[in-house]
């Protein structure tokens, strides 16, 4: 029970993170926001990485070892793509819609895994069909147009799914805490680099966005990731997947509470179908646990 509650807390932290990300755009550009928050999140993991240095570096024997910096650089590149599309997309869509569309990665992971000959089940396809129908109701307008921000979030969900697969490959082969720390630093550095070229980075504006940046960096990235790593060691995998997928619902709740975002009946129905599809893809009988 305690483990499930902590996972629910992680989902809430990440879901409300969409509110912070959208609020931060009122002060700074998307690249600046991501750059500062991911570097801040990486700094939060420095003490934990030092504390863990005396423990076993590689969690599973038999794998070829990969240096944490190399692993973090690869993961950081994919994270940069997903985070950039998500944050830029938030300029043109709501926090709630972004949360649900991003959550599609739960369904996309096993589908993309087919490329690497990973086994999947009929539940994956059933969940994917429900999620696609839900996406249609949520994002496709009656004239068959889709908002630009929603398109970016959909493409971003593909990269988030790729990020999960990349981490699944790298995690057993390196120090997982340092992998996370380095990927955050790589993502943050790339974001700031692009920000210096495309945006007018101002310390005054960054200070103005201190609360969203603090939440996005320390709470969402630093605390949220650390809790996930610690708690999922004891959690049932299917329980963890379902509870973490509620991130989407918390994003919609946060958008309604803090940003006065409202969903039409059509969009709400789409959100429900997407959430059901995500859960079915994880709980269908025969799914790997």
Question: Distance N terminus to C terminus?
Answer: 19 Å
The gyration radius over C-alpha positions equals 18 Å
Which runs of at least 5 residues are low in confidence (pLDDT < 50)?
Answer: none
Shape: globular
Strand content: under 5%
Give me the count of strands.
Answer: 0
Total number of helices: 14
Helix fraction, binned, reads over 70%
Which structural class best describes the helix and strand composition?
Answer: mainly alpha
Largest sheet: none
Average predicted local confidence, pLDDT: 85
The ordered string of helix (H) and strand (E) elements is HHHHHHHHHHHHHH
A few lines on this structure:
By secondary structure, this protein is mainly alpha-helical. It is built from 14 helices and no strands.
Q: Characteristics of this structure?
A:
single chain, 289 residues, mainly alpha, 74% helix, globular
Describe the structure in your own words.
- With 289 residues, the protein is mainly α.
- It has 14 helices and no strands.
- The protein has helices at 2-24, 30-44, 46-51, 68-89, 95-102, 105-113, 122-139, 148-170, 176-198, 203-208, 210-231, 237-245, 247-258, 265-283.
């Amino acid at each position: 029970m305690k483990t499930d509650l902590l996972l629910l807390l992680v989902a809430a932290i990440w879901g409300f993170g969409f509110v912070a990300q959208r609020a931060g755009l009122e002060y700074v550009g998307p690249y600046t926001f991501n750059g500062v928050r991911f570097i801040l999140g990486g700094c939060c993991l420095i003490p934990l990485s030092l504390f863990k240095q005396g423990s076993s570096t590689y969690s599973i024997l038999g794998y070829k070892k990969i240096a944490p910096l190399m692993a973090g650089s690869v993961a950081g590149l994919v994270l940069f793509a997903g985070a950039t599309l998500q944050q830029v997309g938030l300029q043109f869509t709501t926090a709630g819609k972004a949360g649900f569309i991003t959550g599609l990665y739960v369904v996309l992971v096993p589908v993309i895994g087919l490329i690497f000959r990973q086994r999947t089940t009929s539940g994956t396809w059933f969940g994917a069909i429900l999620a696609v129908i839900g996406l249609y109701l949520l994002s496709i307008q009656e004239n068959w147009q889709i908002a630009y921000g929603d398109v970016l979030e959909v493409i971003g969900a593909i990269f988030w799914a790729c990020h999960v697969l990349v981490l699944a490959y790298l995690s057993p082969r390196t120090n997982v805490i340092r992998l996370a720390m380095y990927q955050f630093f790589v993502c943050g550095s790339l974001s700031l680099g692009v920000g210096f070229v495309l945006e007018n980075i101002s310390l005054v504006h960054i200070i103005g966005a201190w609360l969203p940046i603090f939440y996005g960096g320390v709470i969402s990235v630093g605390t949220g990731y650390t809790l996930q790593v610690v708690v999922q060691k004891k959690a049932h995998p299917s329980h963890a997947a379902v509870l973490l997928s509620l991130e989407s619902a918390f994003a919609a709740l946060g958008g309604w509470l803090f940003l006065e975002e409202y969903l039409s009946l059509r969009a709400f129905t789409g959100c429900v179908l997407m959430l059901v599809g995500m859960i079915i893809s994880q709980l269908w009988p025969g799914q790997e646990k």
